[in-house]
Amino acid sequence: MFFHITGSHSYDTCHAHDSEKVNTQKAAFDSAAKHGIKIHYNCVNRLTHTTFLLAEADTYEAVEAMFDPILELGHYEIVPVVNRS
């Protein structure tokens, strides 16, 4: 299954300059393979504090497990999508 993931946060809660939170987020994304997830792209719009990912996983539960350590860092909208090509 494919999942389009949009992550966002406000300017007030931005953690771009908080190395501990940046490392926590990096570790979560680096754990994708451990959870059986392939991230096809991870794009960021820093001006709008928004991240866009396309992830492939067998289950939603795998994606949820990957995001568990960073749930408090922002809002994540995870939508199952279909590759129609």
Shape: globular
Major β-sheet profile: 4 strands, antiparallel
Order of helices and strands: EHEEHE
Oligomer class: single chain
Mean pLDDT value: 95
Strand order across the biggest sheet? Answer: 2-3-1-4
What fraction strand? 25-35%
Low-confidence stretches: none
| Alpha-beta content class | alpha+beta
- How far do the termini sit from each other? 14 Å
Name the helicity range.
Answer: 10-25%
Tally of separate helices: 2
> How many β-strand runs?
4
Radius of gyration: 13 Å
Describe this structure in words.
The radius of gyration is 13 Å and the shape is globular. The protein has 85 residues and is α+β, with helices and mostly antiparallel strands. It starts with a strand and ends with a strand. The chain has helices at 19-30, 60-67, and strands spanning 2-8, 38-45, 50-56, 75-81. A hairpin with a 4-residue loop joins strand 2 and strand 3 (50-56).
Descriptive labels:
85 residues; alpha+beta; four-stranded antiparallel sheet; 2 helices; 4 strands; 24% helix; globular
How would you summarize this macromolecular structure in one to three sentences?
The protein has 85 residues and is of the alpha+beta class. 24% of the residues lie in helices and 34% in strands.
Please specify the SSE layout and strand pairing:
Elements: E1 2-8, H1 19-30, E2 38-45, E3 50-56, H2 60-67, E4 75-81
